[in-house]
């Protein structure tokens, strides 16, 4: 960890064990947004206490898990303000949102106009200033959330080098799976998943182009939700692909993910994709779709090949049990469906995706870097030069930057890029879209996270829910994919499945139970 990270923790992390008087207790372990708000309402918890707890967890666990790059030096001040506003609201002076006082971690590619950095895991952007908060951060702040810090990620979305393992970045090192330390935690929203899994924050935000929310959520036994492209604005976020990138929540429950989703969706004039997607946002909120009977009447397409083959017999057996649960809850299963050209879709060397993403990355990273102030680099070419000139800082002795160099040599106007885009569109139309429409499905259902690539090409939503653990204790999830704007159906299905199975278990090595006695803050009781 950097000295900046250590200094921030030293300034912020308080000894929350020293100020306590016996009273009713609140259980931090696996706390949900609903349980936190109940404790707030019953004067058994303050936002400051909650932030204190997570800061202590980060200080204790992060040297092992390497999932947080830096904490927000203003986090405690934000918590105090949340507590002040809650006290005022209790006196009849206003109402508060679902995320009021709730700590949130942000992936390190999501811009914040504050004292924190936004670097995509690289030293090349350390000290650079963004022009404004990302739109989703503006929405979180408006909802009263406490921005706890920046989560680690696969450096530059793993585009730096094909040799680089998922979950590694120069600033933070290798992120560690809290369930099976020897297993890759997956990426690129690695730290966002690990921190939620290990109870180092309530919820987090990740970004996904292809599998970057779904895969780390699956591997670290948390809920991951990639919304329809455009449902959440990408303005202020380092972008790879305007047709595939989406910002979404990671949490320990479907309900918590939905609370976050409600806060961050909406039209943003700085992201034209949000204008088209805004028509999908329901009247009221997405919380109305948290229905225990949400599986009843749903038509689910089960795609086994090749996804069940990847996970082993134990996972496949548990998957079959879950399919029986779907049926018992009133869903109709259309089993053993196959996706046309699946072998091509799942191979970046054949589907054209990497050709397109490298070219788009170059174009949009140059645009993003040009809007920064006080930045050591202003273009992808300068990023490459920075890395070459700082081999020790950027750990160049471990992983090269062949991926960045390849991206620098591209253009979004190249013939091979245009042809690759057409190929991806055709694969999506003849594959996922055809599967969903011809079988009149509400969702595609697969074991594990590998299927996230299939809806990625068309900018479709995907939601993964913890579904079990293999013989080695490695988590796996069930992945639900739908057509554009089908978030309501996916929420109903996933929430009903979660309530019926309750498969998530915290990682044993990092699951110390703790109860925090209530104590009076300086402003008195609420």
Descriptive overview:
The chain is α/β, with parallel strands linked by helices and 526 residues long. It has a single domain (25-517), classed as Amidase signature (AS) domain (Amidase signature (AS) enzymes, Alpha-Beta Complex), CATH 3.90.1300.10. Helix content is 38%, strand content 13%. The protein has 18 helices and 15 strands. The strands form 3 sheets. Strands 2-4-3-7-9-8-13-14-12-10-11 form an 11-stranded mixed β-sheet, with helices on both faces. The protein has a two-stranded antiparallel sheet with strand order 1-15. Helix 10 (307-328) links the parallel strand 10 (299-302) and strand 11 (332-334). The radius of gyration is 22 Å and the shape is globular. Keywords: Signal. Residues 1-23 form the signal peptide. Residues 50-490 form the Amidase domain.
CATH top level label:
Alpha Beta
Global shape = globular
**Superfamily at the CATH H level?**
Amidase signature (AS) domain
How much of the polypeptide forms β-strand, as a percent range? Answer: 5-15%
* Content-based structural category: alpha/beta
Helical stretch count? 18
Number of domains: 1
Gyration radius over CA: 22 Å
Low-pLDDT parts are: 13-23, 514-526
Q: What can be said about the biggest beta sheet?
A: 11 strands, mixed
Helix content: 25-40%
**Spatial order of the strands in the main sheet?**
2-4-3-7-9-8-13-14-12-10-11
The span between the termini is: 38 Å
CATH topological fold name: Amidase signature (AS) enzymes
Q: Quickly give the CATH architecture.
A: Alpha-Beta Complex
**How many DSSP E strands?**
15
What's the average pLDDT? 92
Protein name: Amidase domain-containing protein
Domain Amidase: 50-490
Signal peptide: 1-23
Keywords: Signal
